[in-house]
């Protein structure tokens, strides 16, 4: 747990080759626990084509026999440790800083643990991102140095979750319900009948939100 997380640049899925990325808005996707970069990349065809999509792989390995990768542990003594989540988010911000180049804008979108990363990255670097999308995620209940600047800037954030989602602990959902409106321009929706997943209705709402965040020509 003491090692500094680092994202593997060789494990990133891009929707466009380097020659086709200049000057376009960049959207970085973060998967959930036990998954990998291929998971959310499957959403790319359903998102506005103006974005260059980059789906990254989380830097940590869950304990055997859980497959895939994680942003922070959910089990044992370090389960949901916000400091580990913050360390992974710092690694994410560092990687984005290295690839953003002349992107017209940069946004982050994540599911579950990736949704936590989206909010955490926004809190770490409020001026670095134009918006965030958190699907079935939450805001960690610990202060970060960028929180005051975030509350002043109030970037747009879409937070979607299922009414039947019992994976995210209720106290974390309750904290997020209170915390987000005081720090961001929130677009939130709870989807009836949805558990810990992404529905077609939610994906449609996300696509609409993303279109509204496109930089003006």
TrEMBL record:
This is Esterase. Keywords: Hydrolase. It holds the Pfam family Abhydrolase_2. The lineage of its organism: Bacteria, Bacillati, Actinomycetota, Actinomycetes, Micrococcales. The keyword Hydrolase applies. The keyword Hydrolase applies. Residues 22-212 form the Phospholipase/carboxylesterase/thioesterase domain. GO terms for molecular function: hydrolase activity. It comes from Microbacterium imperiale. InterPro entries: AB_hydrolase_fold, LYPA1-2/EST-like, PLipase/COase/thioEstase. Gene3D superfamilies: alpha/beta hydrolase (3.40.50.1820). Belongs to the AB hydrolase superfamily. AB hydrolase 2 family.
């Amino acid at each position: 747990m003491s090692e500094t997380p680092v994202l593997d640049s060789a494990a990133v899925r891009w929707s466009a080759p380097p020659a086709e990325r200049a000057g376009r808005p960049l959207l970085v996707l973060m998967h959930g626990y036990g998954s990998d970069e291929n998971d959310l990349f499957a959403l790319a065809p359903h998102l506005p084509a103006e974005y260059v999509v980059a789906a990254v792989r989380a830097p940590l390995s869950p304990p055997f026999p859980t497959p895939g990768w994680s942003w922070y542990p959910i089990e044992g003594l370090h389960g949901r440790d916000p400091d580990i989540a913050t360390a992974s988010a710092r690694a994410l911000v560092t990687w984005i800083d290295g690839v953003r180049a002349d992107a017209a804008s940069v946004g982050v979108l994540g599911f579950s643990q990736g949704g936590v990363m989206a909010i955490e990255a926004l809190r770490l670097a409020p001026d670095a991102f134009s918006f965030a999308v958190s699907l079935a995620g939450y805001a960690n209940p610990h202060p970060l140095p960028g929180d005051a600047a975030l509350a002043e800037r109030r970037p747009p954030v879409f937070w979607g979750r299922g009414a039947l989602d019992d994976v995210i602990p209720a106290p974390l959902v309750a904290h997020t319900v209170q915390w987000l409106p005081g720090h961001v321009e929130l677009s939130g929706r709870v989807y009836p009948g949805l558990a810990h997943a992404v529905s077609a209705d939610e994906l449609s709402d996300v696509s609409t939100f993303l279109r509204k965040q496109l930089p003006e020509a």
